Amino acid sequence: MSQPKKTRVTVDIFNRSYTIIGEEDEQHLSRVAGLVNEKMKEIHEKNRSLDTSRLAVLTAVNTMNDYVKLKKEHEKLKTTIREKEE
Amino acid sequence: MSQPKKTRVTVDIFNRSYTIIGEEDEQHLSRVAGLVNEKMKEIHEKNRSLDTSRLAVLTAVNTMNDYVKLKKEHEKLKTTIREKEE
């Protein structure tokens, strides 16, 4: 079996350059990087004293929180569908 | 109207201490922090030369990627349900 095709894209996040590698297309990866950049700026605005490392960790925590909540909602929706189909 | 109750929890992520504030309960916030910690360790294992700041940004990117993909799936599922109900 062939390996999934990897996309490599260089993006700027909070004034540093990153090479991101993923199985998604370039547009998707750039959008994801843009969203992280926005969230970092947003948290930075509210907490000007945070160093970049702490700021990035809090951005990751914030995003993970959104992910975990959406995941719960998604699982609930899937259960509802299964119940309807039974 | 009263303000939503805020939870404040202190967690360790990648050997630094963070105070996280959210509307969710303590157990949820600790779990979220634990997931970020795991993801950072995972990326660190694969890229030992990354400094903590870059590592944290890439962890945020990775999590945002998961979020955006799940969001698409979730919207698709909601559309399917709406179509079935019509």
Features:
homodimer; two-stranded antiparallel ribbon; 16% strand; alpha+beta; flat; 2 strands; 86 residues
Brief description of this entry?
The structure is a homodimer of 86-residue chains. With 86 residues, chain A is α+β, with helices and mostly antiparallel strands.
Q: What's the overall geometry of chain A?
A: flat
Q: Using DSSP, what is the number of strands of chain A?
A: 2
The ordered string of helix (H) and strand (E) elements of chain A is: EEHH
- The neighbouring-strand order within the major sheet of chain A is 1-2
Give a short account of the largest sheet of chain A: 2 strands, antiparallel
Helix coverage percent of chain A: 55-70%
Name the average pLDDT of chain A: 93
Catalogue the unreliable spans of chain A.
Answer: none
Number of helices of chain A: 2
Question: What gyration radius of chain A follows from the Cα positions, in whole Å?
Answer: 17 Å
N-to-C CA distance of chain A:
37 Å
Oligomer: homodimer
Q: Largest interface here, residues on each chain?
A: A-B, 40 and 40 residues
How much of the sequence lies in strands of chain A comes to 15-25%
Structural class of chain A: alpha+beta
Structure, explained:
Two copies of one chain form a homodimer. Chain A has a two-stranded antiparallel ribbon. The first copy, chain A, is flat and about 55 Å long. In chain A, helix 1 packs across helix 2. The mean pLDDT of chain A is 93. In chain A, strand 1 and strand 2 (16-22) form a beta hairpin. Chain A has two helices and two strands; from the N terminus they run E-E-H-H. Chain A has helices at residues 26-46, 52-85; strands spanning 7-13, 16-22. The A-B interface holds A 13-14, 16, 18, 20, 22, 24, 28-29, 31-33, 35-36, 39-40, 51-54, 56-61, 63-71, 73-74, 77-78, 81 and B 13-14, 16, 18, 20, 22, 24, 28-29, 31-33, 35-36, 39-40, 51-54, 56-61, 63-71, 73-74, 77-78, 81.
